[in-house]
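[SOLVED] Need 3D model of a two-part complex

Original post:
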Amino acid sequence: MFRPAGGAIVAEIRIENLCKEFGGFVAVRGSTLTIEDRCFFVLLGPSGCGKTTTLRMIAGLELPTSGRILLDGEDVTRRRAAERDIAFVFQLYALYPHMSVRENLGFPLRCQGMARAARRRRVEETAALLRIDHLLDRSVTGLSGGDRQRVALGRAIVRRPKAFLMDEPLGALDTEFRHLMCSELRNLHDRIGATSVYVTHDQLEAMSLADRIAVMNHGVVEQVGPPQEVYDRPATMYVADFLGSPPMNFLAFDGSVHRGDRQVRVNGAVVEVPEIHEDRAAGPLALGVRPEHVSLSDVSAVRGRVLGTDYLGTTQIVTVTTAHGSVKARVPAALPVAVDEVVGLEFRTPHLALFDAASGRALPSALYYRETTDG
Amino acid sequence: MSVDAQSQSVLAPGPWSKRFAAAVVILYAGLAVLPLLWIFLTGFKTPPDSIAYPPKFVFEPSLEGYVNLFTTRSRQSDDYLAGLPPPTNWVDRLVRSRNMVIAGPSKFGQRFVNSVIIGFGSTALAVVLGTLAAYGFSRFRVPLADDLLFFILSTRMMPPIAVAIPIYLMYRSLGLTDSHLGMILLYTAVNVSLAVWLLKGFIDEIPREYEEAAMIDGYTRFQAFWRVVLPQAATGIAATAIFCLIFAWNEYAFAVLLTSGEAQTTPPFIPFIIGEGGQDWPAVAAGTTLFLVPIVVFTVLLRRHLLRGITFGAVRK
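Solution:
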């Protein structure tokens, strides 16, 4: 409905070495990314990581300090926002309060000089798609948060632009509604099929929406990949820590590793790991293990005392104090665990990651060179 | 009783404080309205009634003040008056009864038109310039913006009349004395600082996202300003226009100094309406009453825009 068959329109967004400084503050430092046509791409990171600035540069609302932005291979770095054929959904919607829903939706079309009848048809089509057709003649000021969000989305898609940029569009909604809008958004994307770039700090939103995620921190893109890959094979300790709730456990130790090693000594305890692909001289290392890959076992060499448990319904999070630091394990809720009990911790070898604790980068290992990850 | 007092909300005022507040408001309203009312009544008195002592609250209304305001008259002998054809309308009859004939129209109409041209002209100019400047200060990184804004405001740190002599000399050499353009420029210069400051506050409150949204949708910055920012700044523009008009409309000192004939506004004209044996108070009062009308109408027309809240709720802060 929105795009001609055969995929004549291609909207690939590429940013190259993009930098942005505000005064002395570096918001984005040297990001390079390719966002493929029809991809739902999520920029994920904490506030202040440069994700919104990156998005605004793609939109043309900020000029980069250096670097290039390419739309379908065409350099648009210095081009005005109006000339990029991109739509933007603002976190706070930015609906024009002096216009009705219909006027808000029609506003981008008026600019293109579309005839009144065609405009009316397009506005009604768009409203029907978003199920806000009954609100067309209402004032936007009286709408609920969800309806405002739909109008804002409608204003973005009504023009059928090459790409949609969304800056935390669900951030102002309450939790329950966010889940609903999240799936609506994904459905909408699947139907329209236009390239979407979505900024959020919410990892659940990112995981459920994205075809690909870019995790940003301090203006740097730490990792780009499909959600599961980013989650299962984090490239840096930052990514491993940012994703997952609770985040990945890190067991710090000093040591050296060699190509072909299949086990490491974590402060004396031997832990089997995926085959290591690189030599590394002695230095600070960290073993990364997600809570769901820790199980309680009496025979394990890594032992600790249970500090407490958080009951989550089907699972519980058990916090264990060990000689290597505190470790969280996600175990079935039915498993009886008593506080102060001494337990052994077993790690599931195929999922373990090793990090250079100084640089934060993951050491290449079989974990990163496998086609699929399985339970 | 004590139960009642405690069940009342801590924030809601009690009955006595409400009554007290009402009394204060009524008293103040009375004080503010009384002089206006007196002027309005005086306009309908005869000259003897207007200076009667003790003051007359009950009197026979007369339109003599309004007739005198709009006409110039000359006193004639009884013989001359007897030789005239009988008066054809109530104005003539009224004037004849005072042994006078109408010599021609007074300059009030012309002065009033001058006031309208200069007052509304300078208001429009100050609001247009002020809106554009305020938008610039609000949205762009203007070098030394804070200092510039301070300097703009510094023009209002002394009474404008303090610079009367330099302005008089300047206007004389520029040939701007007693011209509409000169007065419009002068009042605009005084008002524009107020306009910039007031409007900057209003425009700062309009989120940038509105313009950004419009600009992404294909509009130029000016179109975005025109279609998105201006409608939302309507409240501020209306308030600013009212303040500017009140200043320009009522300004007296510069008008006395810089205008005498061609471009004289109403304020310097009214006090010098001379009747027989001194001030013609009913005519002065009539002139003042009419002088109030445009500003009251303007304020009432814009009052709708003064009600805040048009942007409420569309953007969550």
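Edit: The helical segments of chain A are 51-59, 101-111, 116-129, 145-157, 175-192, 203-209, 227-232, 237-242.
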